[in-house]
Amino acid sequence: MKLKSKTLALCLITLFLTTAVFSDKKIKVVTTTTDLASIVQAIGGNKVSVESIGRGYQNPHAIEAKPSHILKLQKADMFVKVGLELETWSRLLTESARNPKIMPGATGYVDGSEGCKILDIPQGKVDRSMGDVHPQGNPHYWLDPLNGKIIAGNISKALSKISPENKEHFEQNRAKFTEQIDSGLERWNKQMAPYKGTKIVTYHRSWPNFTSRFGLKVVDYVEPKPGIPPSPGHLKSLIEMMTKEGVKLILMEPFYSQNTAKSVAQKAGAKVLVLPPSVGGVKDVKDYIGLFDYNIGQVVKALSD
Amino acid sequence: MMIRLFSIFAAVSFFMLSTAVAQEQESEEESSENEPEIVTTAPAPAQSLNPDISVIGDFAWRDDTMFSFREAELGLQAVVDPYARADFFVAFPGPGEGETPELEEGYLTILRMPYDLQAKLGFFRPKFGKLNLTHPPENRFADLEPNVVVNFLGDEGLADAGIEFSALLPNPFGLYTELSAGLFNGDNEASFHGGTSMKPVSLLHLKNFIDLTDATSMEFGASYAQGVNDAEGNLKTKLTGLDFQVKWRHPVFSQYNSRVLQGEWLQSRRDVEDGSKAGRDGFFVFFQEQIERRAFLGLRYDESEFPLAPVREKAGSIIASFYPSEFSLYRLQYKHTREADGTKSNLWLFQTTFTLGPHRPHAF
């Protein structure tokens, strides 16, 4: 009797394991940033399980590729990156993951930048005297909601190739996501209308897509060149310019030290606004649409005070 | 009877499993055959097919030898095809540092193999310990290598012609565990002499990595190498190593504040011509704190015997590094050494390295 019970239990376990293979298994997606993860979730819905290597409060340039990331990628069906050399560390991971599904050129490899409007593409000779320059253009393109629609299209296309039977599901979600962006744009543009043309300074060159979309004019940067800390001479000129031009706002990300920006703001009679460039950068920002709701709200509040 | 029934049931289930996997692979191949290639919005420039070219210059000053341009290392790195990549590093020694350019590494990495294996073939730095994978100018020390590495693996560490396989070992703890096994010629000035004897060096390395928190990670490993140390191939050398590294980076301000604690222990047991066996060891421990965005302060302690001499030297170093950008650095090291015979010496070293072109990030 005992032997029969054990055998029955073993059969049930085997049946369960076999059934698990045939049941709807989710598409495992790994992204480099939380913004991409949010868009994947919006498009994939309950057909995907997604996680991001980077955290929303981290500088995506400076993420350290760790072996634990390789384990995630080893099991992934799809890998989504921002591209434009933002994540130079990611190749180390994909090449070590032993997963042909996510290698460049494979169905599961997605470069979110395809088809997006890319700004600040350097012209002429490009070298490191320009600082930490991105020769293919500014990689912070996800901060334009219209690019968010294109990213969603790239993701939907890849998901549909991986799981053609769910193509309609992905397209429906994409249409819904597009509607959310369109209605979001309507309210964001309305909120920002009174501040169109306002001159601001940003710490790093992370905001051209955001400021261009919502009518803010970036007149200078705290960093004299990307990735190069400011010299006293540059800060002096910056303060003088801000005072003369009436620039009242310095925009920066949470992962940069605020000391220099605050000092400049105090001397120029301006204020520093720390904005998350990514989902999860602050607790209240839980998805891609929420990122713009939060950031636009904060900018409006800062400019109206 | 019940066992037989279970066996049939299990066999049928696994047959269905393997069929499902095969069908999945077929449909992936079919869909890739029917779907058009990914179209980019702009044509890729032809020069993107060229390898990434980089040069690292290593210039130093020591108070016992004055200035030296130690080497210029040319790197050529690219994907070969969808299955493999290749990396070449050629060191051009400065005047007085060597006579001819030297291949530091030249190897093919096969990225896709059965059973999730990867393989490296060529002339390269095998996985032995942690420090051996990094080219000396890119280490965190102006003297390039800790004493134990120089004494047991040579000035440049272990680099040899051979083949190495690596596999990620599944485990119930979710730990990154990588096992590497390699065979090499065994030409090493300090510990092996396999070249003329035709007896290769065999290497094993186990690497474990765990994220303790989002900000802190720990790596620990074990290495073993066995080969011969004479031209006839009669005398054996066995090297055993243990390594660890604990890294902390501020979860938000990681560019401004980080710490690393790293160490390796190496033991050599070798047959000697007189019939005796020499067992020697050594270790180093290194701690570095990032005190500001571009400035780092480090301390290193070395203690090491020599492969054939039962004498032990000890040294302590203070190391200050400054990075104007990620492409250049200036480093000052003060090293106090107590030699095996008790004599003491002090050494000041200054190093600067500078990089042109994209240099692939090194493995964690």
Could you characterize what this model shows?
Chain A has 305 residues and is α/β, with parallel strands linked by helices. Chain A is built from 10 helices and 8 strands. Chain A has a 4-stranded parallel β-sheet with strand order 2-1-3-4, with helices on one face. In chain A, strand 7, helix 9 and strand 8 form a beta-alpha-beta unit. With 364 residues, chain B is mainly beta. In chain B, the strands form 2 sheets. In chain B, strands 1-2-3-4-5-6-7-10-11-12-13-14-15-16-17-18 form a 16-stranded antiparallel barrel. Chain B has a two-stranded antiparallel sheet with strand order 8-9. The radius of gyration of chain B is 24 Å and the shape is globular. The chains are: A alpha/beta (305), B mainly beta (364). The interface between A and B is large, with 52 and 56 residues.
Task: Record keyword descriptors for this entry.
heterodimer; A: 305 residues; alpha/beta; four-stranded parallel sheet; 8 strands; 45% helix; globular; B: 364 residues; mainly beta; two-stranded antiparallel ribbon; 2 helices; 18 strands; 52% strand
Summarize the structure.
The complex is a heterodimer of chains A (305) and B (364). With 305 residues, chain A is an alpha/beta fold. Chain A has helices at residues 2-22, 34-44, 67-74, 90-96, 145-162, 167-192, 208-213, 232-245, 259-268, 288-304; strands at 27-31, 48-52, 78-81, 109-111, 199-202, 217-221, 249-252, 271-274.
Could you give the topology of this structure?
The complex is a heterodimer of chains A (305) and B (364).
Chain A: H1 2-22, E1 27-31, H2 34-44, E2 48-52, H3 67-74, E3 78-81, H4 90-96, E4 109-111, H5 145-162, H6 167-192, E5 199-202, H7 208-213, E6 217-221, H8 232-245, E7 249-252, H9 259-268, E8 271-274, H10 288-304
Parallel strand pairs in A: 1-2, 1-3, 3-4, 5-6, 5-7, 7-8
Helix pairs in contact in A: 2-5, 2-6, 5-6, 6-10, 8-9
Chain B: H1 2-34, E1 52-62, E2 66-81, E3 84-93, E4 102-110, E5 118-124, H2 147-153, E6 160-168, E7 176-184, E8 187-188, E9 192-193, E10 201-211, E11 216-228, E12 236-249, E13 258-271, E14 277-292, E15 295-304, E16 313-325, E17 328-338, E18 344-356
